[in-house]
Structures are given as structure tokens and as C-alpha cells.
Design goal:
With 336 residues, the chain is mostly helical. 72% of the residues lie in helices and 0% in strands. It contains ten helices and no strands. The radius of gyration is 56 Å and the shape is rod-shaped. The relative contact order is 0.05. This is DUF2637 domain-containing protein. Keywords: Membrane, Transmembrane, Transmembrane helix.
Length: 336
């Protein structure tokens, strides 16, 4: 463990030490060669050595103060003065004895050494223990986990709201289209009916009228004396005398129609008793529909009432029957 720690520290300080040594050696050579033009070579190299020795000592003292967290003003000032001087000397030496490129490179080396030395000292002075670093890593990891989970939950909620809004929009769009189609169909039907009125409308086969219901109605009409050679649904057929009871074609289980009750309902309404095959007034039509609607329990729907209306031998345009039935329902709903 100790050897590993030593290797890490050596790797940490290797670049600043290498650059500092290179800068000191290059500076001794440059200062000595420049001074040798004005003084003996031995004296010039001695002065250059003293210069680098003072600079190295200033760097060492500045490093020590930085590691201790104290302020060494004099070492710091000397370090920066010698750095500027070294940069100038190396740049001048390069211009005198080499090329401008060499001059720039020589001037950059001391500055690079100073920068890496400061970074190494700052990192070494702020290093924390392994246990503290583990705690810091654990806190950061837990925080990142919480942030990631929070983002995932928020995005899931946003997706849910977006999907719900999209589904609601589709549902409302579908309802709007259906309403539009119904409105257009009703408008077209009203327009065609007003443009092409029919004086006599043949008896219509009600919607959802099964073959069994039709056979039953035809059989009943035939038994009442209608000639088999004449179509029971032909508009030429005259009135058919009502029987005592006639079962409406709503399927099994429907209560037989009480024709005496129709007479009573007509008397209460103050109108003449409606007869199958005759043209009915609006009041008589309402009486017939009220009688048919309440002929069973629960009361018949419009479709079932219309089928029973046709089965009983009454005839009228379906639009007229529909409007009369709607008015009847509105009147019943308005009653307290």
C-alpha cells in the first residue's frame, strides 16, 4: 500500500519536476552564454548558477508555503520576478543564437514549469483521506440515483397525462363526427321529404321486422278474411276489421293488445276511436301510440311501438309517427 502511494505521488510530481529541471538547466546555459560575451566564461557560468540557485530556492519556499496554507510574500514575488527574467533571457538567447521558433519555445518552458508546479501544490495541499473520499462518492451516487428516479417518475406522469389527453381528444372527435353525420342525415331527410311529399304512402315494413313476425302478421290478416290473392302490404287493401285481440310483433312474451282499452283511451281524449286502415288525425295518432306504448310493461320503445303500430293495421308516414311519439314522450316527462 505504501509503495502504491509513493508511486502515485511520484507520478503526480513528475511533470512539474521535469519541466522545472529543464527550465533551470536551459536558463543556466542561456545566462552563462550571454554573460560570456562580456565577462570570462567561468565568471559567467558562476553568475548563472547563482541565479538559478536563488530561483530554485524561491520556488521551493513558495511551494512549502502553499502546502501549509500560509502566505509567503517574498518567495512568491521572487518566484514571479525570476520567472519573467528567465522568460526574457531564454527568448533573447533564442533570437541571438537560434531561430524565433526556438526563442518562443525556450520562453514557454519556464512558464509551463511554474504553472504545473502551482497545480501540483494546490492538488497536494487539498488532498483528502480515502475514507472521506468514499463518503463523498457515496453521497454523490445517492444524489444521482434520486435525481434519475425523480426524472423518470416525472416523465412517466407527463406521458400518462399526454396519453390521456390524446385519448380524450380522439373520443371527442369521434363523437363530434357522429353528431355531424346524424345532423346531416336528418337535414337531408327533412329536405327530401319537403321537396317530394307523398299523398299516399304504402304500408311500410317496420325496421328490424323479422320474417317470423311478417309470417305471423300475414297469417292473422288472412284468417280475418283478406283474400290471399291480394298482397296484405299493398296500398289497395282496404280497412281490416280489428279482432278482439292482436299480438304485436315484438317477440315472445308481449301482452296481447286490449282493443277495448283503445276505445277507453280515445273516449278520455275526446276523439273518435281510431280504426286500422283509416286516415288518423294527429290526436288519434297520439291516442294509438299512447295505447300501444303502455300495452306492455315496461313501456314499449319507439321501434317496438312502431312495429306494433304496423302490426295492428294502422298506416302513416314513419316521420309523422316518430314526431308524434317524441311529443308523447315529452308530454310524459313533463308530468310531475
Amino acid at each position: 500500500m505504501e509503495a502504491k502511494h509513493v508511486m502515485r505521488r511520484a507520478a503526480h510530481w513528475s511533470l512539474p519536476v521535469a519541466l522545472t529541471g529543464m527550465s533551470l538547466g536551459w536558463t543556466v546555459y542561456a545566462v552563462g552564454e550571454i554573460l560570456s560575451r562580456q565577462a570570462p566564461a567561468a565568471l559567467a557560468m558562476t553568475v548563472a548558477g547563482i541565479y538559478d540557485a536563488v530561483w530554485l530556492y524561491a520556488l521551493a519556499m513558495e511551494t512549502a508555503h502553499r502546502r501549509q496554507g500560509s502566505k509567503g510574500i517574498l518567495p512568491a514575488v521572487l518566484g514571479w520576478v525570476f520567472l519573467v527574467t528567465s522568460v526574457g533571457v531564454l527568448f533573447t538567447h533564442g533570437l541571438m543564437y537560434a531561430t524565433p521558433v526556438v526563442a518562443v519555445i525556450g520562453a514557454v518552458v519556464p512558464a509551463a514549469a511554474k504553472a504545473t508546479l502551482i497545480m501540483a501544490v494546490e492538488r497536494d495541499s487539498t488532498r483528502i483521506s480515502a475514507g472521506a473520499q468514499q463518503q463523498i462518492d457515496a453521497v454523490r451516487s445517492a444524489t444521482r440515483d434520486q435525481v434519475a428516479i425523480g426524472r423518470a417518475v416525472t416523465r412517466a406522469k407527463a406521458d400518462r397525462h399526454t396519453t390521456a389527453a390524446a385519448l380524450e381528444r380522439e373520443e371527442r372527435t369521434a363523437r363530434g363526427k357522429a353528431h355531424k353525420v346524424r345532423h346531416q342525415a336528418d337535414k337531408k331527410l327533412t329536405k327530401l321529404t319537403a321537396k317530394n311529399p307523398a299523398v299516399e304512402v304504402p304500408q311500410e315494413v317496420p325496421a328490424l321486422f323479422s320474417d317470423d313476425d311478417l309470417a305471423q302478421v300475414l297469417g292473422q290478416w288472412t284468417q280475418e278474411g283478406v283474400s290471399p290473392g291480394v298482397s296484405p302490404v299493398s296500398p289497395q287493401v282496404g280497412a281490416v276489421s280489428p279482432a278482439g285481440e292482436l299480438t304485436a310483433s315484438q317477440g315472445a312474451g308481449h301482452t296481447p293488445l286490449d282493443w277495448a282499452a283503445l276505445t277507453a283511451v280515445a273516449a278520455v281524449a275526446g276523439v273518435e276511436t281510431p280504426r286500422p286502415g283509416e286516415a288518423l288525425t294527429e290526436e288519434q295518432l297520439t291516442v294509438v301510440l299512447r295505447w300501444l306504448r303502455h300495452s306492455d310493461n315496461p313501456p314499449l320503445s319507439y321501434r317496438k311501438a312502431l312495429a306494433a303500430y304496423r302490426a295492428a293495421g294502422f298506416s302513416a308516414k314513419e316521420e309523422r309517427v316518430r314526431k308524434a311519439y317524441a311529443a308523447l314522450i315529452d308530454a310524459e316527462d313533463a308530468q310531475p
